Amino acid sequence: MAYLELKNVSKSYGEGKNKTKVLSDINLEIEEGEFVAIVGFTGSGKTTLVNLIAGLIKPDEGDIIFKGNPVEGPAHERGVIFQNYSLLPWLNVYNNVSMAVNEVFKKSSKEEKDQRVKNYVNMVNLSPAIHKKPQELSGGMRQRVAVSRALAMNPELLLMDEPLSALDALTRGNLQEEILKIWSHHKRTALLITNDVDEGILMADRIIPLNPGPNATLGPQFKINIERPRDKTELNKLPEYKTLRNSIIEYLMDIGNQRSSKQSEHTYELPDLQPVIKTGFSRRIF
Ligand SMILES: Nc1ncnc2c1ncn2[C@@H]1O[C@H](COP(=O)(O)OP(=O)(O)OP(=O)(O)O)[C@@H](O)[C@H]1O
Question: Which of 9, 10, 12, 13 to mutate to test the pocket of ligand 1 (most atoms within 8 A of CB)?
Answer without folding.
Answer: 13
